[in-house]
Amino acid sequence: MAWDFETDAAYQELLDWADAFVRDEVEPLDLVLGDPYDKSDPRFAALVRPLQEEVRKRGLWACHLGPDLGGQGYGQVKLALLNEILGRSRYAPSVFGCQAPDSGNAEILAHFGSAGQKERYLAPLLDGAISSSYSMTEPHAGADPTLFTTRAVRDGDGWVINGEKWFSSNARHAAFLIVMAVTNPDVSAYQGMSMFIVPAGAPGLEIVRNVGVGGEREGSHGYLRYTDVRVPAENLLGEEGGAFAIAQTRLGGGRIHHAMRTIAQVRKAFDMMCERAVSRETRRGPLARLQLTQEKIADSWIEIEQFRLLVLRTAWLIDKHRDYKRVRKDIAAVKAAMPKVMHDVVQRAMHLHGALGVSNEMPFAAMLMGAQALAIADGPTEVHKITVARQLLRDREPVPGLWPSGHLPTRREAARARYAEALERAVGDQ
């Protein structure tokens, strides 16, 4: 049997180092630096670059990529265990070279990019020298590619792009964007869309505004307008008409990576909940003595452990099959469960902190908004639940007769018929 709930000793040593490194060196950056995607900030070079070098020395830089691209080529289980640590800090993914959307963009450039595209865009992206953006969703269509209207039309030795894109995260800091556009409107969207690399500052590319989430004053999600944006033919990423397959390669891994880091955030909220329970005194003693508080803590721990096991099992299945399509149901289940677990645990932690919990002096309000964002990013929860149900029902057959297969009178009659002779002999021998 291969069942085991421990990792190998050598990797556990690296995880222990990462745990202490993130806690002592990286998490404090969240409190003193701005946007981790702003590589032009001189403080980034002064504080983050040395930490990135430490990560490289430990062999933990961009572990999701293969050795040919400077990573370790870790499978999803190993990445899950590492990302459970990195998810505690918004700067940790950048320090470890695995920040989204750059990690997903690097993955599709590595799989589908030409030699020239890899040299110009992938190399500096892997080095952490630049940031990128994934420009897919549209304001009228959300993440449904069958409703996209942004067009790319072949014109001589290039392509001309027109349309609008919504929530292109980090577009303001990106050196380039990967854009999905309709190239053949006469066929299905699954065969008629293509991916393009658009350099930042290309004529006709406009950031209409940067949209924030919740109460953010300064947003980082670009509302973009492409007006006759011309790119050379070599900026086509992959094959013409291949955008949907490329997107699924990117999104399958991205969804599971979000879940891995969510575990870290939920555990963070849980730790604050437990600390509050044993610290806050009431007239009857600490909150921890009250049964409703104990219920909140018990429910939270159970839900976290259930979700973590689902994530790890899904990661194991991806490693086993090496085919996201075969694990589609499981990835969708993780994506559907993720925002609810985070919301419920964070809300309980917030509630135990009283007025302090809802104030801007604690992180719970932002974490609750993060849970809502997780329910929308990379496809809304409802879509993923539909995927799970359809996958589960596709091989089911209707019952041939009137009664359900679990109908007790019918089963009892069938059982009596099956054992009739044996029952008669048993009675006769008495």
UniProtKB/TrEMBL annotation:
<dbReference type="InterPro" id="IPR006091">
    <property type="entry name" value="Acyl-CoA_Oxase/DH_mid-dom"/>
</dbReference>
<protein>
    <submittedName>
        <fullName>Acyl-CoA dehydrogenase family protein</fullName>
    </submittedName>
</protein>
<keyword id="KW-0285">Flavoprotein</keyword>
<feature type="domain" description="Acyl-CoA oxidase/dehydrogenase middle">
    <location>
        <begin position="134"/>
        <end position="229"/>
    </location>
</feature>
<dbReference type="InterPro" id="IPR046373">
    <property type="entry name" value="Acyl-CoA_Oxase/DH_mid-dom_sf"/>
</dbReference>
<dbReference type="Pfam" id="PF02771">
    <property type="entry name" value="Acyl-CoA_dh_N"/>
</dbReference>
<comment type="subunit">
    <text>Homodimer.</text>
</comment>
<dbReference type="InterPro" id="IPR036250">
    <property type="entry name" value="AcylCo_DH-like_C"/>
</dbReference>
<dbReference type="InterPro" id="IPR013786">
    <property type="entry name" value="AcylCoA_DH/ox_N"/>
</dbReference>
<keyword id="KW-0560">Oxidoreductase</keyword>
<dbReference type="InterPro" id="IPR037069">
    <property type="entry name" value="AcylCoA_DH/ox_N_sf"/>
</dbReference>
<dbReference type="InterPro" id="IPR050741">
    <property type="entry name" value="Acyl-CoA_dehydrogenase"/>
</dbReference>
<dbReference type="InterPro" id="IPR009100">
    <property type="entry name" value="AcylCoA_DH/oxidase_NM_dom_sf"/>
</dbReference>
<keyword id="KW-0274">FAD</keyword>
<feature type="domain" description="Acyl-CoA dehydrogenase/oxidase C-terminal">
    <location>
        <begin position="244"/>
        <end position="393"/>
    </location>
</feature>
<comment type="similarity">
    <text>Belongs to the acyl-CoA dehydrogenase family.</text>
</comment>
<dbReference type="Pfam" id="PF00441">
    <property type="entry name" value="Acyl-CoA_dh_1"/>
</dbReference>
<feature type="domain" description="Acyl-CoA dehydrogenase/oxidase N-terminal">
    <location>
        <begin position="11"/>
        <end position="128"/>
    </location>
</feature>
<dbReference type="Pfam" id="PF02770">
    <property type="entry name" value="Acyl-CoA_dh_M"/>
</dbReference>
<dbReference type="InterPro" id="IPR009075">
    <property type="entry name" value="AcylCo_DH/oxidase_C"/>
</dbReference>
